Amino acid sequence: MKTLWRRHRWWLTPTLLIMPAAILFSVVILASSVESLWISLHEWDGFGPMIWIGFDNYRELFNDPQFYVSLKNNLIWLVMFMLAPPLGLAIALLVNQKIRGMRFLKSLFFIPLVLASVAVGVVFSWVYTPQFGLLAIIFRFFGATAPAVLSDEHFVTFAVVTAALWPQTAFCMVLYLAGLNNLSEDLIGAGRVDGAKGWNMLRHIVLPQLTQVTFIAIAVTVVGALRSFDIISVMTSGGPFGSSSVLAYQMFEQSIFSYRFGYGAAIASVLFVIMSVFIVWYLSRIIRAEERGA
After folding, report:
1. Residue 240, exposed/middle/buried by CB under 10 A (0-12, 13-18, 19+)?
2. I need a surface site. Which of 96, 186, 232, 256 has the fewest CB within 10 A?
3. What positions does the domain ABC transmembrane type-1 occupy (predicted)?
4. Which domain does 259 fall in, by range?
């Protein structure tokens, strides 16, 4: 037995270490995704028997105006959330300076990361209150009246995304702080000898060493934008009149409130496909970039 183990331990050891996580991923993620796809082909209220209807849920979905509103809002989330990595990098570069009092400033920027999304949503609901919120105070200072942004279908999505962008930026800041603390001092020293400083130092010395951190920051940010749900539920519940709903919230609303689990599963399947397409495309670009650099 010992001889067999020694002969094959080069692949048995990593297999045994990976197997628990692989089994958990297969049960929780893959099996659930397959079951959700199966449910999407049925009409089901969550309690009674499932009735096979084929692709009727998908046909109804693609003819549903609310689906396109939710999809448009997801795109707005995606575009605005792309501000999080550069903002996080800028803040990380700021608070990484060895200046007195910078630790306190760093802790202030770190606060939103430890707050629950529900708490962030409640805080920003107060900020946006047109009578006594922070936004109202700012507008009154300039002699204007604050708009009720959470009740305006044209501004509500931007207001909610701004609230969600706060903790997401803090998350990216933490990622970049970890990356900045692992920079090669030899490369930085060599750059200084060659006269690099300021923007040239950042562009040619620092940013190339943060490529992996940037990859993680962008991937997590995009996934976070596509699966946005909790802060919408707290701040607007998809309103007014569904104007701030996204695919994840529409799925929840159809499944839980309308008892249409098949239709909700169809929305979830479409969202899963969108995420999968992005992940495959992004990974392929990263792999090609690494192959060119190797």
Report:
1. middle
2. 186
3. 70-284
4. 58-116+165-293
